[in-house]
Amino acid sequence: MTTIRATDFIQSIADALQFMSYYHPRDYIQSLAAAYAAEESPAARDAMAQILVNSRMCAEGHRPICQDTGMVVVFLKIGMDVRWESTMSVQAMVDEGVRRAWQHPDNPLRASMVAPPIGARKNTGDNTPAVVHMELVPGDRVDVRLAAKGGGSENKAKFVILNPSDSLVDWVLKTIPTMGAGWCPPGMLGIGIGGSAEKAMLLAKESLLNPIDIHELRSRGAADLIEELRLELYEKVNALGIGAQGLGGLTTVLDVKILTYPTHAASLPVAMIPNCAATRHLEFTLDGNGAVALTPPRLADWPQIVWDAAAGARRVDLDRLTREDIATWQPGERLLLSGKLLTGRDAAHQRIVELLNRGEPLPDCVDLTNRFIYYVGPVDPVRDEVVGPAGPTTATRMDKFTEQMLAETGLIGMIGKAERGPVAIDAIKRHGAVSLIAVGGAAYLVARAIRGSRLIAFADLGMEAIREFTVEDMPVMVAVDSQGESIHQTGSIQWCRRIGTI
Protein backbone atom coordinates (compact mmCIF):
# COMPACT_ATOMS: atom_id res chain seq x y z
CA MET A 1 0.00 0.00 0.00
CA THR A 2 1.45 3.35 -1.09
CA THR A 3 0.41 6.62 0.53
CA ILE A 4 0.20 9.66 -1.74
CA ARG A 5 0.10 12.89 0.21
CA ALA A 6 -2.11 15.69 -1.03
CA THR A 7 0.74 18.19 -0.62
CA ASP A 8 3.00 16.16 -2.93
CA PHE A 9 0.29 15.64 -5.55
CA ILE A 10 -0.75 19.30 -5.60
CA GLN A 11 2.84 20.57 -5.74
CA SER A 12 3.68 18.14 -8.54
CA ILE A 13 0.74 19.37 -10.62
CA ALA A 14 1.71 23.00 -10.02
CA ASP A 15 5.40 22.46 -10.79
CA ALA A 16 4.65 20.48 -13.95
CA LEU A 17 2.28 23.14 -15.31
CA GLN A 18 4.84 25.87 -14.71
CA PHE A 19 7.55 23.73 -16.34
CA MET A 20 5.34 23.08 -19.38
CA SER A 21 4.50 26.74 -19.81
CA TYR A 22 8.04 27.67 -20.84
CA TYR A 23 9.74 24.42 -21.95
CA HIS A 24 8.72 22.82 -25.21
CA PRO A 25 9.13 19.03 -25.22
CA ARG A 26 12.53 18.09 -26.65
CA ASP A 27 10.99 15.91 -29.37
CA TYR A 28 8.90 18.83 -30.63
CA ILE A 29 11.91 21.17 -30.84
CA GLN A 30 13.99 18.61 -32.73
CA SER A 31 11.16 17.81 -35.14
CA LEU A 32 10.37 21.47 -35.82
CA ALA A 33 14.06 22.26 -36.31
CA ALA A 34 14.29 19.49 -38.91
CA ALA A 35 11.17 20.82 -40.67
CA TYR A 36 12.63 24.33 -40.62
CA ALA A 37 15.87 23.12 -42.19
CA ALA A 38 13.95 21.37 -44.99
CA GLU A 39 11.33 24.09 -45.61
CA GLU A 40 11.40 25.77 -49.04
CA SER A 41 8.55 28.27 -48.56
CA PRO A 42 10.05 31.61 -47.41
CA ALA A 43 6.89 32.61 -45.52
CA ALA A 44 6.58 29.28 -43.72
CA ARG A 45 10.30 29.21 -42.98
CA ASP A 46 10.10 32.68 -41.43
CA ALA A 47 7.16 31.59 -39.27
CA MET A 48 9.03 28.48 -38.07
CA ALA A 49 12.09 30.59 -37.29
CA GLN A 50 9.99 32.87 -35.09
CA ILE A 51 8.48 29.89 -33.26
CA LEU A 52 11.92 28.38 -32.62
CA VAL A 53 13.47 31.68 -31.51
CA ASN A 54 10.48 32.32 -29.26
CA SER A 55 10.80 28.84 -27.77
CA ARG A 56 14.42 29.39 -26.77
CA MET A 57 13.61 32.82 -25.34
CA CYS A 58 10.90 31.29 -23.17
CA ALA A 59 13.21 28.50 -22.00
CA GLU A 60 15.79 31.09 -20.97
CA GLY A 61 13.35 33.61 -19.50
CA HIS A 62 10.87 31.17 -17.91
CA ARG A 63 7.89 32.91 -19.50
CA PRO A 64 4.99 31.33 -21.40
CA ILE A 65 5.48 30.03 -24.93
CA CYS A 66 2.04 31.34 -25.86
CA GLN A 67 -0.25 33.93 -24.32
CA ASP A 68 -2.97 31.27 -24.35
CA THR A 69 -1.51 29.21 -21.54
CA GLY A 70 -4.22 26.63 -22.08
CA MET A 71 -7.02 24.64 -20.54
CA VAL A 72 -5.60 21.98 -18.22
CA VAL A 73 -6.42 18.40 -19.19
CA VAL A 74 -5.29 15.57 -16.90
CA PHE A 75 -5.24 11.81 -17.46
CA LEU A 76 -4.70 9.88 -14.22
CA LYS A 77 -4.05 6.18 -13.77
CA ILE A 78 -4.50 5.52 -10.07
CA GLY A 79 -3.22 2.26 -8.63
CA MET A 80 -5.83 0.35 -6.67
CA ASP A 81 -3.29 -0.12 -3.85
CA VAL A 82 -2.85 3.64 -3.42
CA ARG A 83 -4.09 5.35 -0.28
CA TRP A 84 -4.62 9.12 -0.37
CA GLU A 85 -3.56 11.23 2.59
CA SER A 86 -6.04 13.99 1.85
CA THR A 87 -9.36 15.50 2.86
CA MET A 88 -9.86 16.78 -0.69
CA SER A 89 -11.23 15.06 -3.77
CA VAL A 90 -8.85 14.27 -6.63
CA GLN A 91 -10.55 16.98 -8.71
CA ALA A 92 -10.06 19.51 -5.91
CA MET A 93 -6.38 18.57 -5.55
CA VAL A 94 -5.79 18.98 -9.28
CA ASP A 95 -7.57 22.34 -9.24
CA GLU A 96 -5.44 23.53 -6.33
CA GLY A 97 -2.33 22.60 -8.34
CA VAL A 98 -3.67 24.54 -11.32
CA ARG A 99 -4.44 27.52 -9.09
CA ARG A 100 -0.90 27.59 -7.68
CA ALA A 101 0.64 27.29 -11.13
CA TRP A 102 -1.48 30.06 -12.61
CA GLN A 103 -0.85 32.44 -9.72
CA HIS A 104 2.90 31.88 -9.48
CA PRO A 105 4.42 35.32 -8.68
CA ASP A 106 7.42 34.90 -11.00
CA ASN A 107 5.49 33.49 -13.94
CA PRO A 108 1.75 34.17 -13.72
CA LEU A 109 -0.22 32.42 -16.44
CA ARG A 110 -3.27 33.71 -18.28
CA ALA A 111 -6.62 32.70 -16.83
CA SER A 112 -8.85 31.60 -19.70
CA MET A 113 -11.59 29.43 -18.17
CA VAL A 114 -15.08 30.95 -17.98
CA ALA A 115 -18.20 29.78 -16.15
CA PRO A 116 -20.94 29.13 -16.94
CA PRO A 117 -20.13 28.16 -20.53
CA ILE A 118 -23.21 30.00 -21.81
CA GLY A 119 -24.67 33.21 -20.47
CA ALA A 120 -22.40 35.36 -18.31
CA ARG A 121 -19.21 33.42 -19.16
CA LYS A 122 -17.31 35.04 -16.29
CA ASN A 123 -13.61 34.29 -16.03
CA THR A 124 -12.94 32.02 -13.05
CA GLY A 125 -9.76 33.98 -12.39
CA ASP A 126 -7.42 31.05 -11.73
CA ASN A 127 -7.95 28.82 -14.78
CA THR A 128 -9.88 26.24 -12.81
CA PRO A 129 -11.51 23.83 -13.12
CA ALA A 130 -9.26 21.39 -14.93
CA VAL A 131 -10.69 18.62 -17.09
CA VAL A 132 -9.78 15.41 -15.27
CA HIS A 133 -10.03 11.83 -16.55
CA MET A 134 -9.36 9.02 -14.05
CA GLU A 135 -8.80 5.29 -14.44
CA LEU A 136 -8.30 2.76 -11.64
CA VAL A 137 -5.58 0.25 -12.50
CA PRO A 138 -3.66 -2.48 -10.67
CA GLY A 139 -0.62 -1.19 -8.78
CA ASP A 140 0.53 1.17 -6.07
CA ARG A 141 1.46 4.29 -8.04
CA VAL A 142 -0.23 7.28 -9.65
CA ASP A 143 0.66 7.99 -13.26
CA VAL A 144 -0.06 11.58 -14.29
CA ARG A 145 -0.29 12.83 -17.88
CA LEU A 146 -0.83 16.57 -18.20
CA ALA A 147 -1.65 18.81 -21.13
CA ALA A 148 -2.30 22.55 -21.36
CA LYS A 149 -4.48 22.83 -24.47
CA GLY A 150 -4.84 26.15 -26.26
CA GLY A 151 -8.24 27.29 -27.47
CA GLY A 152 -7.13 27.85 -31.07
CA SER A 153 -6.31 24.18 -31.59
CA GLU A 154 -9.07 22.85 -29.35
CA ASN A 155 -11.64 24.74 -31.43
CA LYS A 156 -10.64 22.71 -34.48
CA ALA A 157 -11.57 19.34 -32.98
CA LYS A 158 -13.64 17.22 -35.39
CA PHE A 159 -15.79 14.15 -34.97
CA VAL A 160 -17.69 11.90 -37.36
CA ILE A 161 -19.27 8.47 -37.33
CA LEU A 162 -18.39 6.90 -40.65
CA ASN A 163 -19.88 3.81 -42.18
CA PRO A 164 -17.57 0.83 -41.60
CA SER A 165 -16.88 0.69 -45.35
CA ASP A 166 -16.02 4.42 -45.64
CA SER A 167 -12.47 5.67 -46.11
CA LEU A 168 -11.01 7.28 -43.00
CA VAL A 169 -8.18 8.74 -45.07
CA ASP A 170 -10.63 10.48 -47.41
CA TRP A 171 -12.48 12.00 -44.45
CA VAL A 172 -9.26 13.34 -42.91
CA LEU A 173 -8.03 14.84 -46.19
CA LYS A 174 -11.42 16.44 -46.82
CA THR A 175 -11.63 17.80 -43.26
CA ILE A 176 -8.13 19.21 -42.72
CA PRO A 177 -8.53 22.11 -45.21
CA THR A 178 -11.78 23.15 -43.49
CA MET A 179 -9.91 23.60 -40.20
CA GLY A 180 -7.99 26.61 -41.47
CA ALA A 181 -4.81 27.73 -39.70
CA GLY A 182 -6.27 28.72 -36.34
CA TRP A 183 -4.67 25.64 -34.78
CA CYS A 184 -1.22 27.12 -35.52
CA PRO A 185 0.47 24.49 -37.67
CA PRO A 186 2.94 22.88 -37.78
CA GLY A 187 1.74 20.68 -34.95
CA MET A 188 0.44 17.17 -34.43
CA LEU A 189 -2.77 15.44 -35.37
CA GLY A 190 -4.34 13.18 -32.79
CA ILE A 191 -6.83 10.64 -34.14
CA GLY A 192 -9.08 8.35 -32.12
CA ILE A 193 -10.79 5.47 -33.85
CA GLY A 194 -13.51 3.29 -32.39
CA GLY A 195 -15.32 2.95 -29.11
CA SER A 196 -18.27 5.32 -28.75
CA ALA A 197 -18.49 9.01 -29.60
CA GLU A 198 -16.97 10.17 -26.32
CA LYS A 199 -14.37 7.39 -26.28
CA ALA A 200 -13.09 8.35 -29.73
CA MET A 201 -12.62 11.95 -28.61
CA LEU A 202 -10.71 10.85 -25.51
CA LEU A 203 -8.49 8.60 -27.61
CA ALA A 204 -7.67 11.47 -29.95
CA LYS A 205 -6.84 13.80 -27.06
CA GLU A 206 -4.70 11.25 -25.24
CA SER A 207 -2.82 10.29 -28.40
CA LEU A 208 -1.38 13.82 -28.51
CA LEU A 209 0.51 13.13 -25.29
CA ASN A 210 2.73 10.57 -27.02
CA PRO A 211 6.19 11.61 -28.27
CA ILE A 212 6.88 12.54 -31.88
CA ASP A 213 8.43 9.53 -33.59
CA ILE A 214 7.25 9.66 -37.20
CA HIS A 215 10.80 9.93 -38.57
CA GLU A 216 11.87 6.77 -36.75
CA LEU A 217 8.74 5.07 -38.08
CA ARG A 218 9.55 6.16 -41.63
CA SER A 219 13.08 4.83 -41.27
CA ARG A 220 12.17 1.37 -39.99
CA GLY A 221 8.87 0.95 -41.84
CA ALA A 222 5.38 0.13 -40.60
CA ALA A 223 4.86 -3.00 -38.53
CA ASP A 224 1.05 -3.00 -38.52
CA LEU A 225 -2.05 -1.42 -40.06
CA ILE A 226 -2.13 1.54 -37.67
CA GLU A 227 1.49 2.44 -38.40
CA GLU A 228 0.75 2.20 -42.12
CA LEU A 229 -2.17 4.57 -41.60
CA ARG A 230 -0.01 7.03 -39.67
CA LEU A 231 2.55 7.12 -42.47
CA GLU A 232 -0.10 7.49 -45.17
CA LEU A 233 -1.83 10.36 -43.39
CA TYR A 234 1.47 12.09 -42.57
CA GLU A 235 2.49 12.10 -46.24
CA LYS A 236 -0.92 13.04 -47.63
CA VAL A 237 -1.73 15.77 -45.11
CA ASN A 238 1.63 17.43 -45.73
CA ALA A 239 1.03 17.13 -49.48
CA LEU A 240 -1.95 19.48 -49.04
CA GLY A 241 0.59 22.31 -48.89
CA ILE A 242 -1.10 24.17 -46.01
CA GLY A 243 2.25 24.77 -44.32
CA ALA A 244 3.29 26.66 -41.20
CA GLN A 245 0.60 29.10 -40.05
CA GLY A 246 -1.36 28.19 -43.19
CA LEU A 247 1.03 30.21 -45.37
CA GLY A 248 1.81 27.37 -47.76
CA GLY A 249 4.78 25.04 -47.41
CA LEU A 250 6.14 21.54 -47.10
CA THR A 251 5.27 20.81 -43.45
CA THR A 252 1.79 21.07 -42.01
CA VAL A 253 2.01 18.25 -39.46
CA LEU A 254 5.05 16.99 -37.57
CA ASP A 255 3.39 13.70 -36.67
CA VAL A 256 0.09 11.83 -36.77
CA LYS A 257 -0.81 9.90 -33.63
CA ILE A 258 -3.55 7.24 -33.56
CA LEU A 259 -5.19 5.32 -30.73
CA THR A 260 -7.96 2.75 -31.28
CA TYR A 261 -10.63 0.90 -29.33
CA PRO A 262 -13.09 -1.86 -30.32
CA THR A 263 -16.42 -0.52 -31.56
CA HIS A 264 -19.92 -1.54 -32.58
CA ALA A 265 -20.21 -3.52 -35.81
CA ALA A 266 -22.43 -0.84 -37.34
CA SER A 267 -20.14 2.11 -36.52
CA LEU A 268 -16.79 3.66 -37.23
CA PRO A 269 -16.42 6.62 -34.81
CA VAL A 270 -13.49 8.86 -35.72
CA ALA A 271 -12.25 11.89 -33.79
CA MET A 272 -9.47 14.26 -34.84
CA ILE A 273 -7.87 16.89 -32.62
CA PRO A 274 -4.82 18.97 -33.61
CA ASN A 275 -2.06 20.14 -31.30
CA CYS A 276 -0.67 23.60 -31.96
CA ALA A 277 2.83 25.04 -32.13
CA ALA A 278 2.58 25.66 -28.37
CA THR A 279 2.75 21.93 -27.66
CA ARG A 280 2.60 21.50 -23.88
CA HIS A 281 2.44 18.10 -22.24
CA LEU A 282 4.28 16.20 -19.54
CA GLU A 283 3.97 12.92 -17.68
CA PHE A 284 5.32 11.68 -14.37
CA THR A 285 4.72 9.03 -11.70
CA LEU A 286 4.18 9.47 -7.97
CA ASP A 287 5.23 6.55 -5.77
CA GLY A 288 4.81 8.00 -2.29
CA ASN A 289 8.37 9.35 -2.05
CA GLY A 290 7.51 13.03 -2.40
CA ALA A 291 6.70 15.48 -5.15
CA VAL A 292 8.02 15.02 -8.67
CA ALA A 293 11.50 16.34 -9.49
CA LEU A 294 11.63 17.80 -13.01
CA THR A 295 14.90 18.08 -14.92
CA PRO A 296 15.17 21.16 -17.18
CA PRO A 297 16.20 20.49 -20.78
CA ARG A 298 19.58 21.57 -22.09
CA LEU A 299 19.63 24.80 -24.08
CA ALA A 300 21.86 22.90 -26.51
CA ASP A 301 18.71 21.05 -27.60
CA TRP A 302 17.48 24.25 -29.28
CA PRO A 303 18.90 25.07 -32.72
CA GLN A 304 20.92 28.24 -33.09
CA ILE A 305 18.81 30.37 -35.42
CA VAL A 306 19.62 33.92 -36.45
CA TRP A 307 16.31 35.57 -37.30
CA ASP A 308 16.49 39.09 -38.73
CA ALA A 309 13.11 40.78 -38.40
CA ALA A 310 14.16 43.69 -40.61
CA ALA A 311 15.43 41.66 -43.57
CA GLY A 312 13.15 42.45 -46.51
CA ALA A 313 10.51 44.08 -44.30
CA ARG A 314 8.75 47.41 -44.83
CA ARG A 315 8.72 49.72 -41.80
CA VAL A 316 5.31 51.25 -41.05
CA ASP A 317 4.42 54.25 -38.85
CA LEU A 318 0.98 53.41 -37.47
CA ASP A 319 0.44 56.96 -36.21
CA ARG A 320 0.57 58.46 -39.71
CA LEU A 321 -1.01 55.65 -41.70
CA THR A 322 -3.75 56.28 -44.29
CA ARG A 323 -5.92 54.11 -46.54
CA GLU A 324 -3.76 55.24 -49.45
CA ASP A 325 -0.69 53.82 -47.73
CA ILE A 326 -2.18 50.41 -47.02
CA ALA A 327 -3.45 50.13 -50.60
CA THR A 328 0.16 49.54 -51.69
CA TRP A 329 0.68 46.49 -49.43
CA GLN A 330 0.83 43.05 -51.01
CA PRO A 331 -0.22 39.63 -49.64
CA GLY A 332 2.75 37.93 -48.01
CA GLU A 333 4.65 41.17 -47.54
CA ARG A 334 6.49 41.44 -44.23
CA LEU A 335 5.99 44.60 -42.17
CA LEU A 336 7.47 46.08 -39.01
CA LEU A 337 4.86 48.15 -37.20
CA SER A 338 5.70 51.10 -34.94
CA GLY A 339 3.30 53.44 -33.16
CA LYS A 340 0.00 52.94 -31.36
CA LEU A 341 -2.66 50.29 -31.88
CA LEU A 342 -5.64 49.07 -29.89
CA THR A 343 -6.36 45.54 -28.69
CA GLY A 344 -9.66 43.72 -28.63
CA ARG A 345 -10.96 40.15 -28.84
CA ASP A 346 -14.38 38.47 -28.95
CA ALA A 347 -15.89 40.00 -25.81
CA ALA A 348 -14.67 43.52 -26.60
CA HIS A 349 -16.01 43.31 -30.15
CA GLN A 350 -19.37 42.14 -28.83
CA ARG A 351 -19.58 45.16 -26.53
CA ILE A 352 -18.54 47.60 -29.23
CA VAL A 353 -21.18 46.24 -31.60
CA GLU A 354 -23.85 46.43 -28.88
CA LEU A 355 -22.98 50.11 -28.29
CA LEU A 356 -23.09 50.84 -32.02
CA ASN A 357 -26.45 49.09 -32.36
CA ARG A 358 -27.90 51.22 -29.55
CA GLY A 359 -26.50 54.38 -31.10
CA GLU A 360 -24.31 55.04 -28.08
CA PRO A 361 -20.77 56.42 -28.23
CA LEU A 362 -17.76 54.20 -27.73
CA PRO A 363 -15.81 54.60 -24.47
CA ASP A 364 -13.40 57.51 -24.14
CA CYS A 365 -10.05 56.82 -25.82
CA VAL A 366 -11.54 54.12 -28.09
CA ASP A 367 -11.10 56.03 -31.34
CA LEU A 368 -10.54 53.58 -34.19
CA THR A 369 -10.32 56.12 -37.01
CA ASN A 370 -7.45 55.13 -39.33
CA ARG A 371 -6.21 52.71 -36.70
CA PHE A 372 -5.42 49.00 -36.32
CA ILE A 373 -6.85 46.60 -33.75
CA TYR A 374 -4.82 43.64 -32.50
CA TYR A 375 -6.73 40.49 -31.58
CA VAL A 376 -4.88 39.58 -28.39
CA GLY A 377 -5.40 38.67 -24.74
CA PRO A 378 -1.96 39.09 -23.14
CA VAL A 379 -0.42 37.47 -20.10
CA ASP A 380 0.06 39.80 -17.12
CA PRO A 381 3.55 41.37 -16.94
CA VAL A 382 6.18 40.61 -14.31
CA ARG A 383 9.29 42.47 -13.18
CA ASP A 384 10.25 45.10 -15.80
CA GLU A 385 7.91 43.82 -18.53
CA VAL A 386 5.49 46.23 -20.17
CA VAL A 387 3.24 43.31 -20.99
CA GLY A 388 3.55 39.54 -20.76
CA PRO A 389 3.57 37.23 -23.78
CA ALA A 390 1.12 38.71 -26.27
CA GLY A 391 0.69 36.62 -29.39
CA PRO A 392 -2.36 36.80 -31.67
CA THR A 393 -5.63 34.97 -31.32
CA THR A 394 -7.58 33.50 -34.24
CA ALA A 395 -8.82 36.29 -36.50
CA THR A 396 -11.59 34.15 -38.00
CA ARG A 397 -13.63 34.42 -34.79
CA MET A 398 -13.96 38.17 -35.39
CA ASP A 399 -15.24 37.76 -38.97
CA LYS A 400 -18.89 38.33 -38.03
CA PHE A 401 -18.00 41.73 -36.54
CA THR A 402 -15.77 42.92 -39.38
CA GLU A 403 -18.30 44.62 -41.66
CA GLN A 404 -19.79 46.74 -38.88
CA MET A 405 -16.40 47.57 -37.38
CA LEU A 406 -15.04 48.75 -40.73
CA ALA A 407 -18.21 50.59 -41.73
CA GLU A 408 -18.94 52.42 -38.47
CA THR A 409 -15.69 52.99 -36.55
CA GLY A 410 -13.13 54.16 -39.13
CA LEU A 411 -10.97 51.07 -38.52
CA ILE A 412 -8.61 50.34 -41.42
CA GLY A 413 -6.71 47.23 -40.31
CA MET A 414 -6.72 44.17 -38.09
CA ILE A 415 -4.00 41.87 -36.75
CA GLY A 416 -4.58 38.27 -35.70
CA LYS A 417 -3.54 34.79 -36.71
CA ALA A 418 -4.93 32.42 -39.34
CA GLU A 419 -7.18 33.08 -42.30
CA ARG A 420 -10.18 35.35 -42.76
CA GLY A 421 -13.42 33.88 -44.07
CA PRO A 422 -15.42 35.05 -47.11
CA VAL A 423 -17.61 37.46 -45.11
CA ALA A 424 -14.59 39.25 -43.64
CA ILE A 425 -12.67 39.28 -46.92
CA ASP A 426 -15.65 40.84 -48.71
CA ALA A 427 -15.83 43.54 -46.03
CA ILE A 428 -12.09 44.17 -46.20
CA LYS A 429 -12.25 44.61 -49.97
CA ARG A 430 -15.37 46.80 -49.83
CA HIS A 431 -13.82 49.20 -47.33
CA GLY A 432 -10.24 49.15 -48.64
CA ALA A 433 -8.90 47.78 -45.35
CA VAL A 434 -6.27 45.10 -44.67
CA SER A 435 -5.80 42.11 -42.39
CA LEU A 436 -2.36 41.24 -41.04
CA ILE A 437 -1.05 38.20 -39.17
CA ALA A 438 1.46 37.78 -36.39
CA VAL A 439 2.88 34.31 -35.80
CA GLY A 440 0.88 32.12 -33.44
CA GLY A 441 3.31 30.42 -31.09
CA ALA A 442 5.71 33.39 -30.92
CA ALA A 443 4.03 35.30 -28.10
CA TYR A 444 7.10 36.19 -26.05
CA LEU A 445 8.96 37.31 -29.17
CA VAL A 446 6.05 39.56 -30.21
CA ALA A 447 5.80 41.02 -26.71
CA ARG A 448 9.37 42.31 -26.98
CA ALA A 449 8.10 44.78 -29.60
CA ILE A 450 5.50 46.24 -27.21
CA ARG A 451 7.03 49.27 -25.47
CA GLY A 452 3.93 50.65 -23.77
CA SER A 453 0.54 49.36 -22.62
CA ARG A 454 -2.41 51.04 -20.94
CA LEU A 455 -5.89 49.74 -20.24
CA ILE A 456 -8.51 52.05 -21.75
CA ALA A 457 -11.87 50.25 -21.73
CA PHE A 458 -13.86 47.27 -20.42
CA ALA A 459 -11.53 46.51 -17.50
CA ASP A 460 -13.97 43.90 -16.18
CA LEU A 461 -13.15 41.68 -19.18
CA GLY A 462 -9.68 40.95 -17.80
CA MET A 463 -7.37 39.73 -20.55
CA GLU A 464 -10.10 40.60 -23.11
CA ALA A 465 -10.19 44.29 -22.12
CA ILE A 466 -9.24 46.97 -24.64
CA ARG A 467 -5.69 48.24 -24.27
CA GLU A 468 -3.58 50.69 -26.21
CA PHE A 469 -0.20 49.27 -27.14
CA THR A 470 2.79 51.31 -28.22
CA VAL A 471 4.85 49.06 -30.45
CA GLU A 472 8.25 49.29 -32.08
CA ASP A 473 9.12 47.06 -35.03
CA MET A 474 6.36 44.55 -34.36
CA PRO A 475 6.77 41.78 -36.97
CA VAL A 476 3.66 40.99 -39.03
CA MET A 477 2.72 39.84 -42.52
CA VAL A 478 -0.02 40.98 -44.90
CA ALA A 479 -2.64 38.23 -44.96
CA VAL A 480 -5.45 39.99 -46.88
CA ASP A 481 -4.70 43.07 -48.96
CA SER A 482 -7.08 45.94 -49.70
CA GLN A 483 -8.23 44.17 -52.88
CA GLY A 484 -9.30 41.09 -50.94
CA GLU A 485 -6.47 38.77 -52.01
CA SER A 486 -5.62 36.32 -49.21
CA ILE A 487 -2.30 34.52 -48.82
CA HIS A 488 -4.11 31.75 -46.97
CA GLN A 489 -6.07 31.02 -50.13
CA THR A 490 -3.23 31.32 -52.62
CA GLY A 491 -0.36 29.92 -50.54
CA SER A 492 -1.69 26.42 -49.94
CA ILE A 493 -2.85 26.07 -53.55
CA GLN A 494 0.57 27.08 -54.86
CA TRP A 495 2.42 24.71 -52.53
CA CYS A 496 0.04 21.82 -53.08
CA ARG A 497 0.77 22.04 -56.77
CA ARG A 498 4.50 22.40 -56.17
CA ILE A 499 4.62 19.43 -53.80
CA GLY A 500 2.84 17.36 -56.42
CA THR A 501 5.80 17.89 -58.76
CA ILE A 502 8.49 17.06 -56.18
Give an account of the 3D structure.
- The protein has three domains: about 1-25 and about 65-150, no CATH class; about 150-285, 60s Ribosomal Protein L30, Chain: A (2-Layer Sandwich), CATH 3.30.1330; about 315-490, Fe-S hydro-lyase, tartrate dehydratase beta-type, catalytic domain (fumarase).
- Helices cover about 35% and strands about 25% of the residues.
- It contains 15 helices and 19 strands.
- The strands form five sheets. Strands 14-15-16-17-19 form a five-stranded mixed β-barrel. Strands 6-2-7-12 form a four-stranded mixed β-sheet.
- Strand 13 (about 315), helix 10 and strand 14 (about 335-345) form a beta-alpha-beta unit.
- Helix 12 (about 400-410) runs parallel beside helix 13.
- The longest helix has 20 residues, at about 40-60.
- The radius of gyration is 23 Å and the shape is globular.
- The termini are far apart.
- The mean pLDDT is about 95.
Question: Top keywords for this entry?
Answer:
single chain; 502 residues; alpha/beta; 60s Ribosomal Protein L30, Chain: A; fumarase; 3 domains; five-stranded mixed β-barrel; four-stranded mixed sheet; 19 strands; globular
Distance between the termini: 59 Å
What number of structural domains do the residues give?
Answer: 3
Task: Give me the CATH fold name of the largest domain.
Answer: fumarase
Instruction: Please estimate the helix content.
Output: 25-40%
Rounded radius of gyration (Å): 23 Å
At the first level of CATH, what is the class of the largest domain? Alpha Beta
Low-confidence stretches: none
The neighbouring-strand order within the major sheet is 14-15-16-17-19
**Tell me, what's the shape?**
globular
The percentage of residues in β strands lies in 15-25%
CATH architecture of the largest domain: Alpha-Beta Barrel
| Name given to the CATH homologous superfamily of the largest domain | Fe-S hydro-lyase, tartrate dehydratase beta-type, catalytic domain
Give the beta-strand count: 19
**Biggest sheet layout:** 5 strands, mixed, barrel
Overall mean pLDDT score?
Answer: 96
H/I helix tally: 15
Query: Which structural class do you get from the secondary structure elements?
Result: alpha/beta
